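Sequence and fold
=================
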Amino acid sequence: MATATLPRAGRVSFSFDPALLIPLVGAGVLIYLAVLPLLMLVVGSFQAETAPREFIYTLKNYQAAYASPYTYSTFMNSVIFASGSAILSFSLGTLLAWLTERTNTPLRLIFVPLAVVPLILPGVLEAIAWIFLLSPKFGYLNV
Protein backbone atom coordinates (compact mmCIF):
# COMPACT_ATOMS: atom_id res chain seq x y z
CA MET A 1 0.00 0.00 0.00
CA ALA A 2 1.31 3.43 -0.86
CA THR A 3 1.78 5.52 2.23
CA ALA A 4 2.98 9.06 2.65
CA THR A 5 5.09 9.98 5.62
CA LEU A 6 6.34 13.35 6.64
CA PRO A 7 9.94 13.26 7.79
CA ARG A 8 11.28 15.97 10.05
CA ALA A 9 12.53 18.04 7.14
CA GLY A 10 8.96 18.44 5.78
CA ARG A 11 9.57 16.35 2.63
CA VAL A 12 7.04 13.72 1.56
CA SER A 13 8.34 10.22 0.84
CA PHE A 14 6.27 7.45 -0.73
CA SER A 15 6.71 3.74 -0.24
CA PHE A 16 5.07 1.12 -2.47
CA ASP A 17 3.97 -2.27 -1.21
CA PRO A 18 4.63 -4.95 -3.91
CA ALA A 19 1.61 -6.97 -2.72
CA LEU A 20 -0.59 -4.18 -4.08
CA LEU A 21 0.67 -4.93 -7.59
CA ILE A 22 -1.35 -8.18 -7.92
CA PRO A 23 -4.80 -6.62 -7.34
CA LEU A 24 -3.90 -3.65 -9.54
CA VAL A 25 -2.87 -5.92 -12.43
CA GLY A 26 -6.00 -8.02 -11.90
CA ALA A 27 -8.21 -4.93 -11.98
CA GLY A 28 -6.46 -3.72 -15.13
CA VAL A 29 -6.98 -7.06 -16.88
CA LEU A 30 -10.64 -7.12 -15.78
CA ILE A 31 -11.22 -3.62 -17.11
CA TYR A 32 -9.47 -4.42 -20.39
CA LEU A 33 -11.21 -7.76 -21.01
CA ALA A 34 -14.70 -7.11 -19.60
CA VAL A 35 -15.52 -3.47 -18.98
CA LEU A 36 -14.15 -1.92 -22.18
CA PRO A 37 -15.91 -4.37 -24.57
CA LEU A 38 -19.14 -3.91 -22.63
CA LEU A 39 -18.80 -0.14 -22.84
CA MET A 40 -18.16 -0.32 -26.61
CA LEU A 41 -21.22 -2.57 -27.00
CA VAL A 42 -23.45 -0.10 -25.16
CA VAL A 43 -22.11 2.91 -27.08
CA GLY A 44 -22.41 1.04 -30.39
CA SER A 45 -26.02 0.11 -29.67
CA PHE A 46 -26.95 3.79 -29.77
CA GLN A 47 -25.07 4.55 -33.01
CA ALA A 48 -26.48 4.56 -36.54
CA GLU A 49 -24.21 4.98 -39.54
CA THR A 50 -25.30 7.80 -41.84
CA ALA A 51 -22.22 7.80 -44.07
CA PRO A 52 -18.94 5.91 -44.01
CA ARG A 53 -17.34 6.62 -40.63
CA GLU A 54 -20.06 9.09 -39.73
CA PHE A 55 -22.37 8.14 -36.87
CA ILE A 56 -25.34 9.70 -35.16
CA TYR A 57 -26.76 8.67 -31.80
CA THR A 58 -30.30 7.34 -31.93
CA LEU A 59 -32.72 4.85 -30.38
CA LYS A 60 -33.70 3.34 -33.75
CA ASN A 61 -31.66 0.18 -33.08
CA TYR A 62 -33.70 -0.52 -29.95
CA GLN A 63 -36.93 0.30 -31.78
CA ALA A 64 -36.05 -2.15 -34.57
CA ALA A 65 -35.13 -4.88 -32.10
CA TYR A 66 -38.10 -4.60 -29.76
CA ALA A 67 -40.75 -3.75 -32.37
CA SER A 68 -39.97 -6.92 -34.31
CA PRO A 69 -42.47 -9.79 -33.90
CA TYR A 70 -39.52 -12.19 -33.87
CA THR A 71 -38.33 -10.76 -30.56
CA TYR A 72 -41.41 -11.94 -28.69
CA SER A 73 -41.49 -15.37 -30.31
CA THR A 74 -37.80 -15.77 -29.44
CA PHE A 75 -38.53 -14.71 -25.86
CA MET A 76 -41.36 -17.25 -25.59
CA ASN A 77 -39.14 -19.99 -27.02
CA SER A 78 -36.51 -19.13 -24.40
CA VAL A 79 -39.09 -19.29 -21.60
CA ILE A 80 -40.38 -22.65 -22.85
CA PHE A 81 -36.84 -24.03 -23.16
CA ALA A 82 -35.82 -22.80 -19.70
CA SER A 83 -39.00 -24.18 -18.09
CA GLY A 84 -38.68 -27.56 -19.76
CA SER A 85 -35.00 -27.77 -18.90
CA ALA A 86 -35.66 -26.86 -15.26
CA ILE A 87 -38.48 -29.39 -14.90
CA LEU A 88 -36.44 -32.17 -16.53
CA SER A 89 -33.34 -31.36 -14.46
CA PHE A 90 -35.30 -31.20 -11.21
CA SER A 91 -37.06 -34.51 -11.95
CA LEU A 92 -33.90 -36.38 -12.93
CA GLY A 93 -31.92 -34.87 -10.06
CA THR A 94 -34.58 -35.86 -7.53
CA LEU A 95 -34.75 -39.38 -8.96
CA LEU A 96 -30.96 -39.81 -8.91
CA ALA A 97 -30.69 -38.44 -5.37
CA TRP A 98 -33.43 -40.75 -4.14
CA LEU A 99 -31.90 -43.78 -5.90
CA THR A 100 -28.40 -43.17 -4.55
CA GLU A 101 -29.28 -42.20 -0.98
CA ARG A 102 -32.49 -44.04 -0.06
CA THR A 103 -32.38 -47.35 -1.90
CA ASN A 104 -30.09 -50.34 -2.34
CA THR A 105 -30.23 -50.17 -6.10
CA PRO A 106 -27.54 -52.07 -7.98
CA LEU A 107 -24.71 -49.99 -9.48
CA ARG A 108 -25.63 -47.01 -7.30
CA LEU A 109 -21.98 -45.93 -7.25
CA ILE A 110 -22.33 -45.09 -10.96
CA PHE A 111 -25.14 -42.58 -10.27
CA VAL A 112 -22.97 -40.27 -8.16
CA PRO A 113 -20.52 -39.39 -10.98
CA LEU A 114 -23.44 -39.40 -13.43
CA ALA A 115 -25.19 -36.70 -11.39
CA VAL A 116 -22.12 -34.42 -11.70
CA VAL A 117 -22.01 -34.60 -15.52
CA PRO A 118 -24.53 -31.72 -16.05
CA LEU A 119 -22.30 -29.46 -13.97
CA ILE A 120 -19.32 -30.27 -16.19
CA LEU A 121 -21.02 -29.84 -19.58
CA PRO A 122 -21.41 -26.24 -20.79
CA GLY A 123 -24.86 -24.79 -21.46
CA VAL A 124 -24.10 -24.28 -25.16
CA LEU A 125 -23.59 -28.01 -25.57
CA GLU A 126 -26.92 -28.64 -23.87
CA ALA A 127 -28.67 -26.20 -26.21
CA ILE A 128 -27.13 -27.87 -29.26
CA ALA A 129 -28.22 -31.28 -27.97
CA TRP A 130 -31.82 -30.06 -27.58
CA ILE A 131 -31.71 -28.64 -31.11
CA PHE A 132 -30.53 -31.99 -32.48
CA LEU A 133 -33.35 -33.73 -30.63
CA LEU A 134 -36.29 -31.38 -31.23
CA SER A 135 -35.54 -29.32 -34.33
CA PRO A 136 -38.55 -29.27 -36.69
CA LYS A 137 -36.41 -29.96 -39.77
CA PHE A 138 -33.77 -32.47 -38.64
CA GLY A 139 -34.48 -33.33 -34.99
CA TYR A 140 -34.20 -37.01 -34.17
CA LEU A 141 -37.53 -37.01 -32.35
CA ASN A 142 -39.37 -35.14 -35.13
CA VAL A 143 -38.15 -37.12 -38.14
